[in-house]
From TrEMBL:
InterPro entries: Ac_CoA_lig (IPR011904), ACAS_N (IPR032387), AMP-bd_C (IPR025110), AMP-bd_C_sf (IPR045851), AMP-binding_CS (IPR020845), AMP-dep_synth/lig_dom (IPR000873), ANL_N_sf (IPR042099). GO terms for molecular function: acetate-CoA ligase activity; AMP binding; ATP binding. Its EC number is 6.2.1.1. It is an enzyme of class 6 (ligase). This is Acetate--CoA ligase. Belongs to the ATP-dependent AMP-binding enzyme family. It comes from the Bacteria. The lineage of its organism: Bacteria, Pseudomonadati, Bacteroidota, Cytophagia, Cytophagales. One of its GO terms (biological process) is acetyl-CoA biosynthetic process from acetate. Residues 68-454 form the AMP-dependent synthetase/ligase domain. Residues 11-65 form the Acetyl-coenzyme A synthetase N-terminal domain.
Length: 632
C-alpha cells in the first residue's frame, strides 16, 4: 500500500495532521507494513535522556517487508540492476525472487559461521550487489551491520571494528573504480593486525587479484554459499532492536557510531523515498551514492527495496571512461529518478555539455541532490542540461543521524526554488534558534537548525557512549535535537541550508571533522601542532586547508607536505587528504591558548580584509606571517 502524497494541498494537509497528532499519523503509515506482532504504544520520548522509542513492543523483520512482501506480486521484477565499472562488461539484473534467495543463502552462511542476533558485522565492500545482499542478510538474522566505506584506510577500519566489537568482516578481494584496480582485502588484513576480534572474514571475488586467505578465518563468498538453502526464516526483531551502526564524523574526537533501529527506520526510509521521489510502480530509480554512506543505506538499499522499486547500483565513477558515463547509464536503463551530489554535478559541469549531447535523457522525471548545499549555478546546469527544464529537482537535506530525508520538495508537487531545500516533510518539526537559545519564529530569519519533535528514523544513540549522543545533539538547545547546520527561512517560509556551523567540513559531500584530520596530521613525527579549516572549493564544495607547525630540521617543505598527506591517507583515507598545506611559524592563539579558527578560515578563504580584531592574540604578528605564506 502506498502512502504517497499527490498534491500540494495534500502535502499541507498531511503536514498539519503530522503535527497535530504525530502518533496517529505515523501509526497509520506503519499499519501498511508487515509486523510479526503489532506495537502496543506508538511513541515514548524525552530529548533530555535522550530516550526515544517508536512502535514499542512491535515485532518485525525489515527483510520480510522487502522480500516476502514483494515475492508473489513482483517476484520477477528487477530489484537491483548492477552496472559494472567497465561499460562493455556484463551487467547483472537481480529480481525480487533472486534477491530473496540470495539473501536467504547468505543468511544461512552467517548462521553457519556462528553469527547471532545482536552480533556486529562489518561490511567493507565495493559497489556490488553482494554488499546489499550482505546488509539484508545481517538484518534477516538479527545481526547489526556496520558498513565502512571501502575508501577508508586500514587504521580507520580497525578503529570501527574495535569500537563496535565486530566479530565478522564481509569484504572483497579488490575493487574496480575507473582506471584503477584497488586492493580491498589486503586493507582488511592490515586492519586485523590491530585487533583479534574478528573470527570470520568472508571474501567476495570481484577482481580475481591475488589475496592471502588465513586458514580457519577467511572464506570465499562463492564457496560459502554453495549448497546453502534458498530459504531462511527471518528472525523476530523488536522495533527498537539495533538495525545498523554507521560511523560519521563530528566536531570532536573520533567518528561516532550512529545507531538506527529496526521499526522506525523502516517506516521512515520507505515513506520518505516514496514521497520525495514520487516513485510509481515500474519506475527505474538510480542513486549514485556508495553504500558506505547513509544515502546508500536509505536510498539505494532500504527505501527503494521496501517500496518494491528497481534500484540501480553503479560500480564506477562519473568520469570513466568519459564524462558521459552517467548519461549513458540513464539512457541504457531508462532511468526515471536520478539522485546524486552537487560535487558530481560540478565535476561534470567542468566538461561542458558535449559529453551529454549523444544522450536523450528523456526517461528522466525527477532529479535529486544530496550531501551539501547546491549552488545556484550547478542547480541551473542540472535543471537545464540534464532535466531539460522539465524535471523537478529535489534538493534533499538530511544527515546520517536523521536516517532519512527531512527537508525537501516533493517531486513535481512542491514548487522549486534553486538552492532551497524548501519545506519540511510531514512529521518534521523544525526550529530556527538564535545564539542565545531563543527560537526565531516567523519568516525571513536565519539561525541554527534544530528539530523539536521526534521522527521515526532518528538516531537513538551513539554506539557505546550514550552521553556523547546527548552532548553532541541534545545539549546545545534544551529539549531540541541540534543539527549542526545553519539555515535561513525566507519570506515564503522556504528553508535554505547554509552549511555547518561547527568544526565539521563537507568535502565533496563527505563529512569530515577538523579535529580528526588534525589528529591524523599530528601523527607525523615532525609535526608540532596543526589547525585545519574548510575553504570554498569550486568542485568539492569545501576543500581542506591545513596550517602546520613543523620541526623543519632535515626536510624540504615539499617533502614534508607529501609526507603529511601520506599520513592523513594512512590514518583516514584519501578523501581526507588536505588540498592545501601551509607550514607556519605559529598559530593565532588567544592568551588562554585557544586557536582563533575564525582568522584561519578567513585567510584560507582569501578574506584578508575582514579578519576582525586581532589585538587580543598572544602574538598578533603571527597573522601577517601566515598571510605572507598563504597558499593560493
Ligand atoms: O551540512 C549538511 C549537509 O551534510 C550534512 C550531513 O552529512 P552526512 O551525515 O554525511 O549525510 C549526507 C547525506 C544525507 C548536513 O549536516 N547536507 C546534506 N544534505 C544537504 C546538506 N546541506 C545542504 N543541502 C543539502 N541538501
Amino acid at each position: 500500500m502506498s502512502d504517497r502524497i499527490h498534491t500540494l494541498s495534500g502535502y499541507f494537509h498531511e503536514y498539519q495532521k503530522s503535527v497535530a497528532d504525530p502518533e496517529n499519523f505515523w501509526a497509520k503509515i506503519a499499519d501498511s507494513f508487515h509486523w510479526k506482532k503489532r506495537w502496543d504504544k506508538t511513541l515514548e520520548w524525552d530529548f533530555e535522556g535522550p530516550d526515544v522509542k517508536w512502535f514499542l513492543n512491535g515485532k518485525l523483520n525489515i527483510t520480510e517487508n522487502i522480500l516476502e512482501r514483494h515475492l508473489y506480486t513482483m517476484g520477477d521484477k528487477p530489484a537491483i540492476i548492477w552496472e559494472p565499472n567497465e561499460p562493455g562488461d556484463p551487467n547483472r539484473i537481480i529480481t525480487y525472487m533472486e534477491l530473496y534467495e540470495e539473501v536467504c543463502r547468505f543468511s544461512n552462511v552467517l548462521v553457519e559461521k556462528g553469527v547471532e542476533k545482536g552480533d556486529k558485522v562489518i561490511i567493507y565492500m565495493p559497489m556490488v550487489p553482494e554488499a546489499a545482499i550482505a546488509m539484508l542478510a545481517c538484518a534477516r538474522v538479527g545481526a547489526v551491520h556496520s558498513v565502512v566505506f571501502a575508501g577508508f584506510s586500514s587504521n580507520a577500519l580497525a578503529d570501527r571494528i574495535i569500537d563496535c566489537k565486530a566479530k565478522v568482516v564481509l569484504t572483497s578481494d579488490g575493487n574496480f573504480r575507473g582506471k584503477k584496480k584497488i586492493p580491498v582485502k589486503s586493507v582488511v588484513d592490515e586492519a586485523l593486525e590491530h585487533t583479534d576480534l574478528i573470527e570470520t572474514m568472508i571474501v567476495f571475488q570481484r577482481t580475481g587479484q591475488e589475496v592471502t586467505m588465513k586458514e580457519g578465518r577467511d572464506f570465499w563468498w562463492h564457496e560459502a554459499i554453495e549448497g546453502k538453502s534458498k530459504s531462511h526464516e527471518a528472525v523476530e526483531m523488536d522495533s527498537e532492536d539495533e538495525l545498523f551502526i554507521l560511523y560519521t564524523s563530528g566536531s570532536t574526537g573520533k567518528p561516532k557510531g550512529v545507531v538506527h533501529t529496526c521499526g522506525g527506520y523502516m517506516i521512515y526510509s520507505k515513506y520518505t523515498f516514496e514521497n520525495v521521489f514520487q516513485y510509481t510502480p515500474g519506475d527505474v530509480y538510480w542513486c549514485t551514492a556508495d553504500v558506505g554512506w547513509i544515502t546508500g543505506h536509505s536510498y539505494i538499499v532500504y527505501g527503494p527495496l521496501l517500496t518494491g522499486a528497481t534500484t540501480i547500483m553503479f560500480e564506477g565513477v562519473p568520469t570513466y571512461p568519459n564524462p558521459g558515463r552517467f548519461w549513458e547509464i540513464v539512457d541504457k536503463y531508462k532511468v526515471n529518478q536520478f539522485y546524486t551530489a552537487p560535487t558530481a554535478i560540478r565535476a561534470l559541469q567542468v566538461h561542458g555539455t558535449e559529453p551529454i549531447a549523444p544522450y536523450k535523457l528523456d526517461s528522466l522525471k525527477v532529479l535529486g541532490s544530496v550531501g551539501e548545499p547546491i549552488n545556484e549555478e550547478a542547480w541551473h546546469w542540472y535543471h537545464t542540461h540534464i532535466g531539460k527544464t522539465k524535471c523537478p529537482i529535489v534538493d534533499t537535506w538530511w544527515q546520517t543521524e536523521t536516517g532519512g530525508i527531512m527537508v525537501s520538495p516533493l517531486a513535481g508537487i512542491t514548487p522549486n526554488k534553486p538552492a532551497f531545500a524548501t519545506l519540511p516533510l510531514p512529521g518534521v518539526q523544525l526550529a530556527i534558534m538564535d545564539p542565545e537559545g531563543k527560537e526565531l519564529k516567523g519568516n525571513s530569519v536565519e539561525g541554527n537548525l534544530c528539530i523539536k519533535f521526534p521522527w521515526p528514523g532518528m538516531i537513538r544513540t551513539t554506539y557505546g557512549d550514550h552521553d556523547r549522543c546527548k552532548q553532541t545533539y541534545f545539549a546545545a538547545y534544551k529539549g531540541m535535537y541540534f543539527t549542526g547546520d545553519g539555515v535561513k527561512r525566507d519570506h515564503d517560509g522556504y528553508y535554505r541550508i547554509l552549511g555547518r556551523v561547527d568544526d565539521v567540513i563537507n568535502v565533496s559531500g563527505h563529512r569530515m571533522g577538523t579535529a580528526e584530520v588534525e589528529n591524523a596530521i599530528n601523527e607525523h613525527p615532525l609535526v608540532v601542532e596543526s589547525a585545519v579549516v574548510g575553504y570554498p572549493h569550486p568542485v568539492k564544495g569545501q576543500g581542506i586547508y591545513a596550517y602546520v607547525i613543523c620541526d623543519m630540521s632535515n626536510r624540504t617543505e615539499a617533502n614534508l607536505v607529501n609526507e603529511i598527506k601520506a599520513s592523513v591517507t594512512n590514518m583516514i583515507g584519501p578523501i581526507a587528504k588536505p588540498d592545501k598545506i601551509q607550514i607556519v611559524p605559529g598559530l593565532p592563539k588567544t592568551r588562554s591558548g585557544k586557536i582563533m579558527r575564525r582568522i584561519l578560515r578567513k585567510i584560507a578563504e582569501g578574506n584578508m580584509d575582514s579578519l576582525g580584531d586581532t589585538s587580543t592574540l598572544l602574538d598578533p604578528d603571527i597573522v601577517d606571517k601566515i598571510i605572507a605564506g598563504r597558499k593560493e
